[in-house]
Model the fold of this input.
Amino acid sequence: MSIRITRQGPVAILAFDRLDRRNAITAAMYAALADGLLDAQADEGCRVAVITGDPAVFTAGNDLRDFRDNPPAGEDAPVFRFLRAISTFPKPLVAGVCGPAVGVGTTLLLHCDLVYAGDNALLSLPFVNLGLCPEAASSLLLPRLVGHPRAAEKLMLGEPFTAADALAMGLVNEVLPPADVQPRVLSIAAKLAAKPSSSLIQTKRLMKQAIAGPVAAQMIEEGAVFGRMLREPAAREAFTAFMEKRAPDFSRL
Ligand code: COA
Done:
């Protein structure tokens, strides 16, 4: 399954657990993440959720082989179910991110309430370099958060950026040594879990309600474009180049 879901009292912990593939996310893993979040949402005993990876790697993003062979079909594809679940998760959501956080590994952070990063974290949004477009409403949320020029830099050049950059841009709350990230995330989650749950839920809802409709609409449009682009020559070339461990050739595309 490659997603490990555990509970520490009122805290649900969803962890990427596929280190040999750098926690690259398959359709089955998206389904497990979506189900894990929906279970945490429905379970009255769960007051906070945590998303985390390994001290060396958060996630390499979409599993490119799985994406090439089984591109998501329709709005109920596991990846879109996951994006809907995380973007509408009503309870506090805390992330711990260390090492590479590629693609959705970075965009999912835009839907978390508090983000703690290891000083080894390397975030990236390489959609254009893969012949794709942004997802997870990042084309709306990132410019809103960091301004158009910096969002364009991250989304159009697609180069990795450090935890320090992410902190300066307001994408993460704190940067720590990688070994300290998980303990910090769990202690913050426990602190939140001790607060009145209804106050936290209402606070989160009120902070997000003005943007909730536009986020949902943007995700639908991104999803339609992303799904189409996955099947087009630029993405096919980028994915094949990745499998063949060579640079992609977009010169005729
Ligand atoms: N999809 C499928 N397989 C992946 C993957 C992905 N997104 N990311 C890594 N893997 C596989 C590699 O193919 C490699 O397999 P192999 O052992 O059969 O050669 C294995 O995982 C280890 O990856 P490697 O690149 O050797 O690890 P690294 O520690 O040197 O680098 C990354 C880690 C994340 C920086 C690098 O793997 C990477 O850039 N991956 C692609 C990220 C990407 O483009 N994601 C899509 C976002 S939409």
The first helix runs from residue 27 to 42. DSSP finds ten helices and nine strands in the chain. The mean pLDDT is 97. The pocket of coenzyme A is lined by residues 21-22, 24, 60-65, 100, 102-103, 126, 130 (CB under 6 Å).
